[in-house]
Design goal:
- The protein is α+β, with helices and mostly antiparallel strands and 487 residues long.
- The protein has helices spanning 23-33, 76-86, 88-109, 149-215, 221-255, 264-267, 293-298, 301-322, 366-432, 438-472; strands spanning 114-126, 129-144, 327-338, 348-358.
- The protein has one domain: Outer membrane efflux proteins (OEP), CATH 1.20.1600.10.
- It has ten helices and four strands; from the N terminus they run αααββαααααββαα.
- A hairpin with a 2-residue loop joins strand 1 and strand 2.
- The two termini are 25 Å apart.
Length: 487
């Protein structure tokens, strides 16, 4: 906003005095100022398909609200709620939103007149003596938004604020997905540790049997050493699994705004006993019914944020273009003059009015260059919007493909684990009967451990693949009052 214009000294207010600027010029500028800038419309993308290429159930779309509850883990919902309150990325996004709101208020304030109070005392000295004069009054100024530059600035600020709110929503979606994926990976690691401990107990029992058979002279020391080697190899897997679990718990602590190690006692699984059932693997929720791609794009806050950034860039082009046109500013003051401070309230009234027109004549191409800068920024924002659309579509398609392939892989691994369990049982029975050598027992136990570990890992991957799909679909985001304030 331009500074307040100083009053015109000596100009006294008269009821019938004509304005300084001719009425004809004011009328012409007012008529031209009635032209409004074109509101940027939401862009459309011809790349949006009508259906998903990867197989997915069709029909009425499944609601994604509270999607993390579909996994059945009692710790997941509280951790996500805590992360949404204390995570640092969310706090930073909230600060950026407050900045954008303030910028919007600043842009809107520049469309309003400004009024300020003033007071002065002046000492006069001459050969005949000296005296003082006092003045108080109000000064006002107002730059008319003839060409819509100010309105375009407000429009750009509103779109930017909306984009900041949507970015905050996307940050929340990402944090919730990160917490869910990390907890599911922790549960998978803990399940793998339980499997390793259970197999270790089985191998220790086998080692004891081999030692008894050695004492009975039925086997050689070689069988004992082979059994002991198998035991130690399985035991060696435990520290790595425990370390991975501790790191996952540290990551969850940081995601929820706590110091690393704060969740160790809460999330550490008790050590499995030989006769304890294995720890439950992460549950994969049932398949989703997806909306059409165009509807999914409307559910993605990052895509909507890119669209709002494009709208802001288009408004700034209008703002820069309007800056090349003439501007009209009105200013004036009204006040009281007196020779003494005590008589100021009954002093003589003084008023002044000023209207000024500013017309760019020559600036070396600066204003035109400003328009070109904003036009290039608008083109960049449009490219960014199209990239956001394509990235969103790819994320959904990739998540669907990942779900399908992981599910097929898990089915085969589960069948292999069942077969490995039968093989291990038969090998041990036949070994005790003296029908096979000990190498068959060792190999069957190693195969069983590997098969069960693979099932645990792939089950975890299937659960986290669902998380990626939920995130790709917008994570259940819906506009809130906080995010709707610019509409």
């Amino acid at each position: 906003m331009k500074p307040v214009l100083p009053p015109i000294e000596g100009a006294r207010y008269r009821r019938h005095r004509r304005p300084v600027l001719p009425i004809a010029l004011l009328s012409m500028l007012a008529l031209v100022g009635c032209a409004s800038l074109q509101t940027p419309s939401a862009p459309t993308s011809s790349a949006t398909p009508t259906a998903w290429s990867a197989s997915a159930a069709t029909g009425e779309a499944t609601s994604l609200a509270g999607w993390w509850q579909r996994f059945g883990d009692p710790d997941l919902a509280p951790l996500i709620a805590q992360a949404l309150l204390g995570q640092t990325d969310i706090a930073a996004a909230q600060a950026r939103l407050r900045q954008a709101r303030a910028q919007r208020s600043l842009a809107a304030a520049q469309l309003s007149p400004s009024v300020s109070g003033s007071g002065s005392v002046q000492a006069n000295r001459s050969d005949g003596g000296h005296g003082e004069s006092y003045r108080t009054g109000l000064d006002a100024s107002w730059e008319l938004d003839l060409w819509g530059a100010g309105a375009a600035g407000v429009q750009a600020a509103e779109a930017t604020a909306r984009a900041s709110a949507l970015t905050l929503a996307q940050t929340r979606v990402a944090v919730a997905a990160e917490v869910a994926a990390t907890l599911l990976e922790l549960r998978g690691t803990q399940a793998r540790e339980a499997i390793a401990r259970r197999n270790l107990a089985l191998q220790l029992q086998t080692l004891q049997i081999v030692q008894w058979r050695l004492e009975a002279g039925l086997v050689t020391q070689l069988d004992v050493e082979q059994a002991r080697t198998s035991v130690e190899q399985t035991r060696a897997q435990l520290p790595a699994l425990q370390g991975a679990a501790a790191q996952a718990m540290n990551a969850l602590a940081v995601l929820t705004g706590q110091a690393p190690g704060a969740l160790q006692a809460r999330l550490t699984a008790p050590a499995s006993l030989p006769d304890s059932p294995p720890m439950a693997l992460p549950a994969a929720p049932p398949d989703l019914v997806l909306a059409i791609p165009a509807e999914v794009l409307r559910q993605r806050p990052d895509v909507q944020a890119a669209e709002r950034r494009l709208a802001a860039a288009a408004a700034r082009v209008n703002e820069a273009d309007a800056a090349r046109l003439p501007s009209l500013q009105l200013g004036g003051s009204i006040g009281l003059n007196a020779l003494t401070l005590g008589s100021l309230a009954s002093g003589s009234g003084v008023a002044s009015l000023l209207a000024s027109v500013k017309l760019p004549v020559f600036d070396g191409g600066r204003l035109r260059a400003q328009v070109q800068v904003q036009e290039a920024a608008r083109d960049e924002a449009e490219i960014g919007y199209r990239a956001a659309v394509l990235a969103a579509l790819q994320e959904v398609e990739d998540a669907l493909i990942g779900l399908r392939s992981t599910r097929q892989q898990l089915t085969a691994q589960q069948a292999a684990a069942v077969s490995a369990q039968r093989t291990a049982t038969l090998a041990e029975q036949r070994y005790r009967s003296g029908l096979v050598d000990f190498q068959n027992v060792l190999q069957s136990q190693r195969t069983l451990l590997s098969a069960e570990d693979s099932v645990a890992g792939t089950t975890t991957s299937l659960a986290t693949a669902h998380v990626r799909l939920y995130k790709a679909l917008g994570g259940g985001w819906t506009p809130t009052l906080e995010e709707e304030f610019t509409r």
